[in-house]
Amino acid sequence: MRGYIFDMDGTLFQTNLILAPALEETFQMLRDKGLWEGETPLELYEAIMGVPLPEVWRTLCPLHTESQHQVSNDFFQHVLIRCIQNRQGALYDGVEDVLSTLSKVDPLFIASNGQTAYLQAIVDTYQLQRYFQAVYSIDVESSGNKADLVARIIREQQLEEGAVIGDRLSDFEAAHKNHFKAIGVAFDFAQQQELHMADEVVTDFKALPLLLK
Predict the structure, then answer these.
(1) Disulfide-capable partner of 49 in 9, 147, 156, 189 (CB 3.0 to 4.6 Å)?
(2) Where are the alpha helices (DSSP H) in the chain?
(3) Across-strand partners of 60?
(4) Which of 187, 22, 20 is nearest to 91 (CA)?
(5) Any long-range contacts for 61-65 (C-beta under 8 Å, 24+ apart)?
(6) Which burial class, exposed, middle or buried, applies to 70 when counting CB atoms under 10 A from its CB (0-12, 13-18, 19+)?
(7) Cα–chain-centroid distance for residue 55?
């Protein structure tokens, strides 16, 4: 059976619209506690977007303890979900039409390094359950590796062929390690040097169906 596996952040969902305010609120919380000085490291986060959350906080706040990383992440997730539910974010142009078309022919899945509650907030707010058979968070994969998460989807859903559609290197590596096609979307968080690892690249989501025929 053929199936298509989509990343969420920077692929389906315009995370950039909620990332800056949520990160700023989180680092203001840290400033208020005397745990941070200076600017919010938004550009650094954008550069590493797509890596697992523990790695995010180790990179953004290398001098903080693991327990403080967890506190910061919990606060950050809470703010992100509030932003999603307030519809401060958005799906990329053409996403709903394309997903509607594709889902009528082949099963669709989400594989994301985002946490379960965060992903569910996006799915519920934008009613993505209309299009996707299942949503897989990195939370369910003990290794924290996206290639392993994609392997789990392929195994559990009995997929024989398909593609992984995403914007970062972890998506393309996950596709290739599982012998799926890697399709890159050149949107907000995409890096040109990483997109070279994809088999195909689109700059407009509406062009995707032509690559999946």
Answers:
(1) 189
(2) 16-32, 42-48, 53-60, 66-85, 95-103, 116-126, 146-156, 169-177, 192-195, 208-211
(3) none
(4) 187
(5) 61/30, 61/36, 64/35
(6) middle
(7) 14
Q: What is the SS3 assignment for 36?
A: coil
pLDDT tens by residue, 57-111: 999 999 999 999 999 999 999 999 999 999 999 999 999 999 999 999 999 999 9
pLDDT number for residue 52: 82
Helical ranges in 52-168 per DSSP H = 53-60, 66-85, 95-103, 116-126, 146-156
- Asked whether residue 51 carries a pLDDT value surpassing 90, the answer given is no
The answer to whether 120 and 18 are in contact (CB under 8 A) is no
**Least confident among 31-35, 70-74, 143-147:** 143-147
The residues, any chain, with a CB within 8 Å of residue 162's CB and separated by 6 or more, are 2, 3, 4, 5, 106, 154, 180, 181
Q: What token pair was written down for 200?
A: 């195909």
pLDDT (average), residues 169-189: 96
Q: Which two tokens stand for residue 63?
A: 């001098």
